[in-house]
Specification:
Chain lengths: 343, 105
């Protein structure tokens, strides 16, 4: 038997009829294809707006819209495809995993294995490979996380190391030995693709900068604000996902861009359930879950306010979002930090 | 029938395109009803030990509930990351309304 307990519905004490879980987990290509088509239409519309606005101040809102539409769904799709739940057809799933992971800036095989670790050890210190910042979070970490600088600092050396086959202990911990060559060749393929785009720019064609690089940088913070609130200010080292993970309300646009992952506790409880069934899963299990936090903007504003006050040694009780008890400190208290597991 | 053939369940005990768990002599098995017939494999995922009884049967594939790694049920072949070690399979025979597994493999 395994010498650990994976974080899931059983570890959290949440119960749901097995047949209902399997019914909700049924796969189909249709929702994923519809989502992809809608995404492409939005990209075409906002991308056209960017093109038409070039050389004017209108390019700023156009780029913000295009960057958001490019970046948030690329994260969401990469995540969904890493689970293999976006499509029923395997090659569709793998193709979209590659495209979206390249945009998200993470090698697809690494994406899949590191995310598996995140589900097995959700928010477990030193074991969850996607626990990117110290907790409780400080202002500097908030800045590094939300701007995307932290992701860049982490991913760039990882690409190089993996491409050279010099895998860190952390990578070896969550990647089976037999799969390491895939990580190596995956990193090489990604670097070759990024290098090709750089060569296109050096040859005088600016479309990769205008339609990929700048929008990815502009949309990055929006994407990272979505991912930040999945677990920030929540309890580390617990088997109960209701204490370590946050679900939150958001409007139709947020639900679309984030592929319903605002139902984040639900997703961690039953990761087999595809994105389009998460609202139904929420209905089935909501009487066993805490109320979702108020919304994307309000949750992020409260998180930022808490982090800012923590840096100033002020009281850190947020007005309405859920926080683990030890995240709440009195005025003048210094936060007891848990150091992140990776790097 | 040799002593290694053990009755696992009735054919009606497993829904179509589903899997159940069968424990015998300290071992855990997964017994499947797929579009191509009944099969049996070891009951735990080879990636990180999870009971496959909670997994999803998609055609002839079983998907692990924890990380969605996939195995081809008839052969036990690992078909999708993060699983990469094949699953042990066991012969199955249907006798009337009963399903038997050869636990010796």
């Amino acid at each position: 038997m395994a010498d650990y307990i994976a974080t899931n519905a059983a570890s959290s004490g949440v119960k749901l009829d097995k047949k209902l879980v399997k019914q909700l987990s049924r796969r189909s290509d249709r929702p994923g294809l519809i989502y992809t088509a809608q995404w492409l239409v939005l990209l075409a519309l906002t991308g056209t707006a960017v093109w038409m606005a070039l050389g004017t101040w209108w390019v700023i809102p156009a780029m913000l819209a295009y960057g958001t539409v490019l970046t948030v769904p690329s994260y969401s799709m990469s995540h969904e495809c890493a689970h293999g739940t976006a499509f029923r057809t395997r090659w569709l799933n793998e193709t979209m995993l590659w495209i979206s992971s390249l945009l998200y800036f993470e090698e697809p095989y690494h994406r899949r294995f590191s995310h598996a670790s995140h589900h097995t050890y959700t928010w477990m210190e030193g074991k969850d490979s996607q626990m990117p910042f110290d907790t409780p979070m400080g202002l500097k970490e908030w800045f590094l996380e939300v701007t995307g600088i932290g992701l860049f600092i982490y991913e760039s050396p990882l690409y190089i190391r993996n491409a050279l086959g010099r895998f860190s202990d952390e990578v070896r911990r969550y990647t089976p030995e037999s799969e390491l060559p895939k990580l190596k060749w995956g990193a090489r393929a990604c670097l070759a693709i990024y290098g090709s785009l750089a060569a296109v720019v050096l040859a005088g064609y600016w479309w990769p900068v205008i339609f990929i690089l700048i929008p990815r940088l502009v949309g990055g913070p929006i994407m990272l604000l979505f991912t930040l609130i999945q677990h920030v200010e929540m309890q580390e080292n617990t088997l109960d996902l209701r204490d370590s993970t946050r679900s939150f309300r958001t409007n139709w646009l947020g639900r679309f861009l984030y592929m319903n992952m605002n139902n984040h506790i639900e997703h961690h409880l039953y990761p087999m359930v595809p994105f389009h069934q998460l609202p139904e899963l929420n209905k089935a299990v909501k009487d066993q879950l805490p109320e979702p936090d108020p919304g994307f903007f309000r949750t992020n504003i409260e998180v930022f306010w808490v982090v800012l006050k923590r840096s100033l040694r002020l009281g850190t009780k947020a007005p309405s979002i859920r926080q683990a008890p030890h995240m709440i400190a009195e005025r003048g208290a210094k936060a007891e930090r848990i150091t992140k597991g990776y790097v | 029938m040799s002593e290694n053939w053990v009755r696992a369940c009735a054919t009606d005990d497993i829904d179509e395109e589903d899997v159940i768990r069968f424990d015998h002599d300290g071992q855990t098995f997964a017994v499947y009803n797929t579009p191509s017939g009944f099969y049996a494999t070891h009951g735990m995922c080879t990636h990180e030990e999870q009971h496959l009884e909670d997994g999803l049967v998609i055609d002839d594939v079983i998907e692990c509930p924890l990380h969605q790694g996939r195995f081809h049920i008839p052969t036990g072949e690992a078909k999708g990351a993060p699983v990469c070690v094949n699953l042990k399979t066991y012969p199955v025979r249907v006798d009337g309304e009963d399903i038997y597994i050869n636990t010796a493999g």
